[in-house]
């Protein structure tokens, strides 16, 4: 473990610092995005004396920041250890052109996938979706997207979940091979992408309701993006999945701000 810490302390510190920053802005954004009744229930559940010392949005930000930093440290550590066992963790220290180009392509494709289906199809079946786009994204929301979304979600869903699934499937069906087969890695990507999509359902229900069209939208859009990010992780490594994930949010927010 001493050698592991010596080799990866900078990586884990990066996860934790970004987790603190992204978690803080995520907490602020989530509180602002809650419907009034849910926001009031949350406020009622917190000791009112706390508000005399700390504003509630700051309190939510701090709580989420600590949680995210813990995720970065614990899940990051487990993910790297399992990633070295499965071959999914790449130790390259430099950014190379081909994987970076693939990340940019997927960032643009993912950004369009986050916006165009709503404008061309799903928005016609849900007034809540169009109302959502009527308000421009806030600064906390954008900062949360490119920090918590791009880094911590990738640590949770790709580095930890996808790697753990690959490790388990390899142990069950690996046929005594040293590393997971391509089929195992693809299956792991699919399962992780489904988990990624399902993980977005609670926020989707809160914002848009739970009609069949809304559920389909959440699973298709987030699942599709999850598959693309998982491909980058499997093929080139975690950093490129993070770059693409952050790029998806940047592209989608630029379209939202400039054209909607």
Can you walk through the features of this model?
The protein has 260 residues and is an all-alpha fold. The chain has one domain. It has eleven helices and no strands. Helix 5 runs parallel beside helix 11, helix 7 packs antiparallel against helix 8 and helix 8 runs antiparallel to helix 10. The radius of gyration is 19 Å and the shape is globular.
Question: What key phrases describe this protein's structure?
Answer:
260 residues; globular
Layout of helices and strands, plus pairs?
Elements: H1 2-33, H2 36-44, H3 48-51, H4 56-86, H5 97-120, H6 127-134, H7 139-173, H8 182-199, H9 201-208, H10 212-235, H11 238-259
Write a concise synopsis of the structure shown.
The protein has 260 residues and is mainly α.
Cα separation of the termini = 51 Å
Q: Could you tell me the strand content as a percent range?
A: under 5%
Please indicate the count of domains. 1
Q: Portion of residues in helices?
A: over 70%
Q: Structural class, from secondary structure content?
A: mainly alpha
The mean pLDDT is 92
- Overall form: globular
Low-confidence stretches: none
* Largest sheet data: none
Q: Report the C-alpha radius of gyration, rounded.
A: 19 Å
Number of helices: 11
């Amino acid at each position: 473990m001493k050698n592991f810490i010596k080799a990866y302390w900078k990586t884990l510190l990066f996860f934790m610092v970004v987790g603190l920053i992204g978690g803080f802005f995520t907490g602020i954004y989530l509180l602002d995005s809650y419907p009034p009744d849910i926001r009031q229930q949350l406020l009622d559940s917190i000791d009112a004396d706390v508000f005399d010392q700390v504003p509630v949005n700051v309190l939510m930000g701090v709580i989420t920041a600590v949680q995210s930093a813990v995720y970065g440290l614990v899940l990051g550590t487990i993910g790297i250890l399992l990633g070295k066992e499965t071959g999914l963790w790449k130790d390259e220290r430099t950014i190379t052109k081909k994987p970076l180009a693939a990340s940019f392509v997927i960032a643009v494709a993912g950004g369009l996938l986050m916006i165009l289906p709503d404008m061309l199809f799903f928005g016609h079946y849900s007034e809540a979706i169009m109302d959502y786009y009527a308000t421009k994204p806030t600064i906390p929301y954008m900062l949360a997207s490119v920090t918590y979304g791009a880094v911590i979600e990738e640590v949770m869903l790709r580095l930890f979940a996808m790697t753990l699934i690959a490790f388990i499937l390899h142990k069950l069906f690996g046929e005594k091979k040293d590393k997971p087969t391509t089929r195992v890695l693809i299956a792991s990507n699919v399962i992780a992408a489904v988990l990624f999509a399902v993980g977005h359902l609670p926020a989707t229900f809160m914002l848009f309701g739970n009609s069949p069209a809304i559920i389909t939208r959440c699973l298709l859009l987030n699942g599709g993006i999850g598959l693309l990010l998982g491909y980058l992780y499997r093929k080139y490594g975690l950093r490129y999945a993070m770059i693409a994930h952050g790029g998806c949010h940047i592209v989608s927010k630029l379209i939202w701000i400039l054209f909607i």
